[in-house]
Structure formats: structure tokens, C-alpha cells
Input
Amino acid sequence: MIYQIEPSFNKKTLKNLQKYIISGSWFTEHTQTKLFEKKFQSFLKSKNVILYPNGTLTMSSILSCLNIKKEDEVLVSNYTMVATPNAPLLAGAKVNLVDISSQNLCMCPIDLKRKITKKTKFVIYTSMNGRAGNILEILKICKQNKIYLIEDAAHSIGSFYKGKHLGTYGVAGSFSFSMPKLITMGQGGAITTNNNLLAKKLRKFKDFGRVRNGMDIHNSLGYNFKITDMQAVLGLGQLDEIKLRLNSKRNLYDTYYELLKDNNKIKIFRRNKDETPWSFDLYSPFKSKIKKILSKNNIVTRDVYPPINNQKIYNHIKGLKVSNFYCKQGIWLPSSINLKKKQIKKICNLINSI
Ligand SMILES: Cc1ncc(COP(=O)(O)O)c(C=O)c1O
Output
């Protein structure tokens, strides 16, 4: 069986986890969480990183800590995971959907301009599959319209654009460490921001609104959105070998690209030099045939996210042709870090044989 994604941890990480558990440490978030935050911060070249339980609460918490109001509108791409549009709704505001560019499958600046109203206060930009897409243009539009740009960089660990890590362009960025991501903690998330005041608020918000560590004094409302040091230990093991992981993902993507690029029945995207897609995605009207032949050969694929406006709670939002076209034709191919070149060749031969 070739799975779409399998997690992989090196032996040292597993030993460190065992060592941590028997060391009598605190289990809840403590020194290892701080260490992960510090190391991820220096990898991103950002002023602050705050760990959260997942990459959904990160986004709703950023909105809450930026004082989102119920009449505020948040614009989100129609091709993303449902967590992105859910975040503004969970924070008590409104959401509208923006179509994507066919060149990179990220939010389309032209459609964004069309959708901005007086109520638009935030844009959440998803760098789909680690692609920078139109980030600079989107940033410019947001600045011109006094809109906060938040980045959903869940897919973008190790993706840079013009030397800057994705997730660090807007007021805050959100990362996910769920199972299929380049770094996984099982579940987990991180917020990055260069705004120290916002970082302080987000730390307080995740810790019951506590004024200071070790004190039961709370002068604002907050949740318990802490993680555990065990998750941080797992994350640290992967962060310490990040170069290796980035190289394998990039090689895997480029190998697929080379073997499939001459097949004119599928649409694939060339990787920009500094991008690290978490998985290889292809789009084809022959999607069901591809899935069938791969499945017969014990090769597991996964459909890409359906267009958001095909989900029940968003289906009153009409139009969005480009995203509807691509999302319905897309699949993720197997993309585990340990996938062998000969396995990729087998998968591509099967696809090209159709
Ligand atoms: C683009 C995108 N945004 C947000 C999320 C949500 O992250 P989490 O599962 O950590 O809540 C995901 C999860 O896969 C995602 O793919």
C-alpha cells in the first residue's frame, strides 16, 4: 500500500520523547514549547511565534485579538480548507468568498477588489500548497483599503517568496502541525506576528486571560488553548532536520513534475524555486479514471478540498467559476517524505498509461 501521506519521525526524536516522559517534567506546555517557539521564530525570521492547539483556533484567535466585530466582513479564498472561512464565523463575524487565479490557485486580486465593501476589515490569504501566488498584490490592495491581511500558511512551512517566509507578510500568519503537514505534532498550530502587542494579547488569550504566569489573576476573557510539551518535543525533532525534510518534499514534487509535464490531459504547476508544496496536486477531467487505476494498484490518493461554496453553510454564495472548475478536478498524489523515486515512477507510469 502506498498511502497519500505517512508521518515520519527519526529515532532520536522518539528517544527524546521517551526521555522527556520519564524525566518528571511538566507535560503541559513549558520549556520544550518555549524552545520550539524560539527555533521556529528564527526559522521564519519573525519577532514572535505562539503555539496553539491547531491551525483553526490560530485564525479565529487572531481575529478575536484584533477586535473583530460582528458586522465586520472577512474575505477568504473559495479554494482552501473549510477551517479558513469557519474562523471568522467562529469569531462571530461574517465571511464572503473570493475566486482564485488559474495561474497559481491562490486568491485572485481582481476578484478581491470586486468583493471589497465598506464592511471588509480582514482578508485571510491561503498560500495553497505552499504557493506564494499573488501575495504582494494582495498585500498592496489590503494596505490601500486599510484591511488587515492575515495569512493562512497551513500548507507553507518552508515556502519563501523573495526571501521572506510565507506567513510573515501580513499582520499575522497561521500554521498547522496536523498529521499531513511537513512538521506534525498530531495536532498543533502556530501564530507568527511581528506585532508585539498582538503577540502579547494572543498569549494571554490562550491562557485564560491570565495576567502573569503562575498567578490566578485574570483581567480579560480567555480560553485554554495551550498545547503539551510532548507535542513540542515531536515538533523539535522535525524542526532540527528541517533542511532534509524540505529537500525531500521539493525533490518529490520536482520528480512528479518532470514525469507528468508532457501529459496534456492533466494540469500541474511548476514549483517556484523557494516553495515547498506539502503534497503533489494535479487537476484533470480524467480524475476518476486516475483514482481508479491508482486504487487498483493499492495507491491512495485524496481529493483536493471541494470549493467552499459547495459546502452546506456556504452554498448561498454563488459564482466563483475558476475555483469550482479546479477544485472538482483535483487530487493529491502520495507525497510522504519517505516515498521512493521508483514508487513515484510507478504512479506516473500508471497515470500516463490512461
Ligand atoms: C489551508 C488550511 N487551513 C487551515 C487548516 C486547519 O488546520 P488544523 O487542522 O490544524 O486546524 C488546514 C488543515 O489541513 C488547511 O489545510
Observations:
- The chain has a mean pLDDT of 97.
- The domain at 242-352 is CATH 3.90.1150.10 (Aspartate Aminotransferase, domain 1).
